[in-house]
Amino acid sequence: MHVQARKARRALKSLVKLQALVRGYLVRKQAATTLRRLQALMRLQAKTASSRKSVEQVRILIPRDGLAQLLHSRFTESQDMMNGIKFASFFCACA
């Protein structure tokens, strides 16, 4: 009986060690993923902050009505580009 109990205890200890090993791997993996996401968030925040600063600089350089004209021209350019893409993709889908 003692031999079976020792084998069972040894098997249980091995199982606990394996569980700890897997749990440690999963925790490290989750920590690495969290750090990558935090870095991406920080890059995004820095990018938006710099774009805000550049918009503020543009506002200072361009009068209010000039800014509206600039934004309108950029908007129509992007709309024209999107319409061209839709037009081209329509013909690609039909062929």
Overview of this protein structure:
This protein has 95 residues and is mostly helical. The protein has two domains: 1-61; 63-95. The protein has helices at residues 2-61, 64-94.
Which short descriptors sum up this protein?
2 domains, mainly alpha, 0% strand, single chain, 2 helices, 95 residues
Task: Let me know the average pLDDT.
Answer: 77
Task: Compute the number of structural domains.
Answer: 2
SS-derived structural category: mainly alpha
Tally of DSSP helical segments: 2
Helical content class: over 70%
Summarize the helices and strands and which ones pair or pack:
Blueprint: H1 2-61, H2 64-94
Structure described in brief:
96% of the residues lie in helices and 0% in strands. By secondary structure, the chain is mostly helical.
